[in-house]
Amino acid sequence: MKRTLLALLAGTLPLGLAAQTTQLPNIVVIGAPEGEPNETELTPIESPGVAVDGGEILRSVPGVDAGRMGGHGLEPVIRGQSQDRINVLLDGAYVFGGCPNRMDPPSTYANTLIYDRVRVIKGVQTLLWGAGGSGGTVLFERDTHVPEKGWGLRYGLAGASNGLDHEAGIDAVLGGERGWLRLFGSDAKAGNYRDGNGDEVRSAWKDRKAAASAGLALGERSRIELGIDHDRTRDVLYAGAGMDSPEATADTARIRFEHEFADGPFEQLELQVSSSRVQHLMDNYSLRPNTGMWARVDSQSDTDSGRLLVDLGIGEWSLTTGIDWMNNRRDAPRLTGMAGMEPSTLNSVLWPDARIERIGLVVEGERPLGEAGLLKAGLRYDQVRHEARKADVDPAGMPMSPNQLYQLYYGSRAESGTDHNLGLLLRYERDLDEGLKLFTGLSRSVRSPDATERYLAANGMTPDQRWVGNPDLVPEAHHQIDGGLAWKTRNGRASMVVYADFVRDYILRDRAHGQVGILQSDNASIYRNVSARLIGAELEAARTLGAGFSLGGDLAWVRADNTTDDRPIAQTPPLHGSLRLDHRRQALELGSRLRWAARQTRVEDDPATDSGLDARQTPGWAVLDLYGSYRFGRQATLSAGIDNLFDRAYANHLNRANQDPFNPTPVQVNEPGRNVWLRLHGRF
């Protein structure tokens, strides 16, 4: 059961670094996977378009969408689930964003150039990547490869007419079988884009990345790798938020040790440790005009994590067993002051030094059942400890400590506590006929509340501007079942997946309307546990037509219900999909893609009666993209295209502007209008 579970420090750059001289081939995925329906692998730099943000990269995967607040920091959504219901790892490391309003979800710190591969695992197909993950898992990975000549160079250049001014990166590797060194750097800048109406959308940003890694072979069967990443974003504008981000930095360090056993039941051991430090600044005055009250938040999110995994074989079972650990600390004071004066008065303790520590034990394995069947089973236990060390801090600017806010809305205080979570997995696959496969699975995954859900404490001038976490929340438990068919022939492939997720104690962001357990009815943003149900389906198909042409399409649908209150769950994507026609002839590739979404009518758009997290019933839309590329050998590939050819004005229903309680009026941010893009990349 050989695999690299966390590519942790497997090089920090697109070429990847290792003693091996075999490199994985490029896989081009344009909205559809080449592998199993529940798992998709894509190569960002080979995909059409110039998506730089990690969330935007994921939009091409069926069943995956993203919510927009501006031009940077799109929030991925898989099968109707988002935020901490998706496990996101960057080359094996946990990097939790520093903004309480999620201007910087983890995928923000991934871009096209620095990662070779993105693996998207939809639903619960494995328990190895951490607790929860009910929506899925996203793994941004890097290859490990040193060319036989002992050195390599890779580059990428991109630009667009509507938004992205430029993206440039270079990646150099030097070494051999015994050791290697790798350096990477990139710079990107985007201006405000225009939507299909010609209106300018506040979406500009600047980003610089640098990374270095080194590895050493310790004999024939052991190696150690170390690496560091630095990411700095500046002047990030958000049309859908009450603040912008003048600066944010993320520094991540990794170390990984791997050993292959010569004989016996043990096959491979992997130990990886990572540490990330995110500092995030947001304010409402330095990047936008504001004659009212000035406010700023200097927040910090520090995450340390580690994982030890051992692969072994016992009889017909191929097993992986291990232990993992994660510790996250978040602190976010909000300061206010009069216009023209640097804010200096403490207004709220948004994250009151919130600390969450998790330690997990996992065992997972698979074995054949007969000649055509495969059984996979897993068990996971997590102990989660939580506390808020500044819950009694009483801000001078708006006197009400976090504990006083918790007491006002829930009748409780922030107390340290421990959750005990148990996850289970059982999957079965069977080859029914040549090229036809049946698969089904049952799972239980449990997620403890995150720092925002449990401890956020944002006071406001009026109650409807308050946003208060709930210390009384209990972990949400997802019980999922899925099944489907995958069919593949020499000239085509097709798949169908259906799934249902029955959730006990779903953590719902809502408004205070005097519900059970909520002591006020003043429209403040609050959290509570409810019962929920999510059901959905995904269809994909592709066929080679001859003469170099191929046709493909996909669609995804999910329905999410709060069954406690008989209400829909807000921010659920409508039926959506794509249709593609591609042509390939030797070094030339041409293609077209129709992206579309149906109207979403199941919404919560009235904060006086429901959560108000949807801006409106979003109209359906369809846009056409054209793209093409030409390969000049390995040294260069030139790609170009036009997104939204007919310059349609439209908005994605998943849109995070209306989730900001400090915006007086919900705003749904339109997507970019016509965009002509160009990219050049290659290697030496």
Textual characterization of the structure:
By secondary structure, the protein is mainly beta. The protein has a single domain, classed as TonB-dependent receptor, beta-barrel domain (Maltoporin, Chain A, Beta Barrel). Helix content is 3%, strand content 54%. The strands form 5 sheets. It has a 22-stranded antiparallel barrel. Strands 1-6-7-5 form a 4-stranded mixed sheet, with no helix packed on it. The protein starts with 38 loop residues before the first strand and ends with a strand.
Structural class: mainly beta
- Fourth-tier CATH superfamily name: TonB-dependent receptor, beta-barrel domain
Q: Counting H and I runs of at least 4 residues, what is the number of helices?
A: 3
Q: What is the terminal-to-terminal distance?
A: 34 Å
Compute the number of strand runs. Answer: 34
Number of domains: 1
Pick out the low-confidence regions: 1-35
**Rg from alpha-carbon coordinates:** 24 Å
The CATH class is: Mainly Beta
CATH topology: Maltoporin, Chain A
Question: Which CATH architecture is right?
Answer: Beta Barrel
The helix content is under 10%
Shape: globular
User: Kindly state the mean pLDDT as a whole number?
Assistant: 91
Query: What proportion strand?
Result: over 45%
Main beta sheet: strand number and arrangement?
A: 22 strands, antiparallel, barrel
